[in-house]
Amino acid sequence: MGKLDGKVALITGAARGQGRSHAELFAQEGADIIAVDLCAQVDTVAYPMATPDDLEQTVKLVEKHGRRIVARQADVRDFEAMKRVVAEGVAELGRLDFVLANAGIMPIIGDAAHTMAAWHDAIDIMLTGVFNTVEAAIPTLLEQDQGGAIVITSSSAGLKVGGARLSTVNRGSLGYAAAKHGVVGLMRAWANALAERNIRVNTVHPTGVNSPMVVNEQFARYTTEHPEFGQTMQNLPPSPLVEPIDISRAMLYLCSEDGRYVTGITLSVDAGLVVG
């Protein structure tokens, strides 16, 4: 018997990385999945982003655990598209219990990172996109009147921007920090507003994660050229990148009965980076 038997989770950025890991763990624990990903390149992002084939692989992993999945290519920047995804997922799977607003980008590398477009892409995807995802889901959670949980993926950079240098700060990185801080404000507002309906809202703050957003040729070259950037990401217990499953287990805790009295918190999974 799983911790999430009979439940349904909406997960954005589900084609690979943390989102795929969340989908697989939640399916393993008995949940059906509504999986969303852009599956296309954003011009200000230097590394290759997820593809339709990546999303199909997530589908196979969820189905391997005997769970159902509704997978859609959609842009979290498009509120109407997110409403359609929620409606289609609920129509097929019957309900909605959890929202994992996970979609994100890192537009901090290359010439495009210095453009205004990088700022707008960061804010539009990781702040407005979170707003669109959660606002698209809230009416269903309220109509069901059975509680639920919302977890937003922020970042250690949503709590602490340490050691910023002129050599590494650009419009993309500023947009990233602003968005990751901004979702904490959204979380706290929703946590207060939705508490009376037993809907819990929290943020999770990872350090660097062993996922395609960080583990790619472009990012490796950037950190080699800018060693001062790596110095801002020193975990307290010396450790490599955390694994996606480490973040997924935090998500599971906050959504399951184990976290039934936990709301309005910023949960760091960062090997002590924020307090270092």
UniProtKB/TrEMBL annotation:
The keyword Cell inner membrane does not apply. It is an enzyme of class 1 (oxidoreductase). Its EC number is 1.1.1.n4. It holds the Pfam family adh_short_C2. Keywords: NAD, Oxidoreductase. GO terms for molecular function: oxidoreductase activity. It comes from the Bacteria. Belongs to the short-chain dehydrogenases/reductases (SDR) family. This is (-)-trans-carveol dehydrogenase. It comes from Mycolicibacterium hassiacum (strain DSM 44199 / CIP 105218 / JCM 12690 / 3849) (Mycobacterium hassiacum). The lineage of its organism: Bacteria, Bacillati, Actinomycetota, Actinomycetes, Mycobacteriales.
